[in-house]
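Figure 3 (text version): structure tokens given as input.
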């Protein structure tokens, strides 16, 4: 499987980076109890999986809520915004030294673990503010459009990530997938 090979290959070179700086955190309110049901939102492997899930969400948008201060409409729009910036360019970038070192290491660790941990109510640096009262349907449609545009975009047209630097299309798909998955950990049914 290509994705698993990529994850292992990119993370092996940074195995040492799994020191306390990137250690596991218990602040995500998830359980490691294997008897608990898994959600298709946590099982998604790529953006096409999320495209299908967001399409399902559109048929019954009031059946979903998220924990925290951000509404689901804002969360979906935030995830779309990240994908959009990978196509147009992020408004603020970390230094090239950060992107080439800490950023690359962080991405490699997230890829290896197939899990991202980031501030779930932190906007993208320099990004346009997304209103918290953004309608769920509007956020879902924006995310679907962003995924569709990303899938049709040539790798050579992708812009560097503000923290991870240059990414291939496959790496970007993984980064966006893990980003959405991290936000969907707060999804309530």
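Below: residues designed for each position.
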């Amino acid at each position: 499987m290509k994705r698993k090979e990529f994850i292992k290959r990119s993370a092996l070179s940074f195995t040492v980076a799994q020191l306390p700086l990137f250690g596991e955190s218990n602040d995500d309110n998830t359980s490691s109890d294997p008897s608990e049901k898994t959600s298709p939102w946590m099982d998604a492997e790529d953006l096409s999986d999320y495209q299908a899930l967001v399409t399902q969400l559109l048929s019954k948008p009031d059946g979903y809520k998220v924990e925290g201060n951000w509404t689901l409409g804002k969360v979906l729009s935030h995830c779309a915004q990240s994908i959009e910036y990978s196509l147009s360019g992020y408004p603020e970038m970390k230094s090239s030294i950060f992107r080439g070192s800490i950023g690359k290491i962080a991405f490699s660790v997230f890829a290896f673990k197939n899990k991202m941990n980031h501030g779930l109510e932190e906007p993208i640096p320099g990004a346009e503010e997304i209103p918290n009262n953004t309608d769920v349907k509007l956020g879902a449609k924006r995310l679907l459009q962003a995924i569709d545009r990303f899938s049709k975009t040539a790798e050579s047209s992708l812009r560097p990530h503000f923290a991870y630097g240059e990414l291939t299309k496959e790496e970007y798909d993984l980064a966006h997938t893990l980003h959405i998955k991290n936000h969907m950990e707060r999804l309530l049914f």
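The two ends are 32 Å apart (CA to CA).
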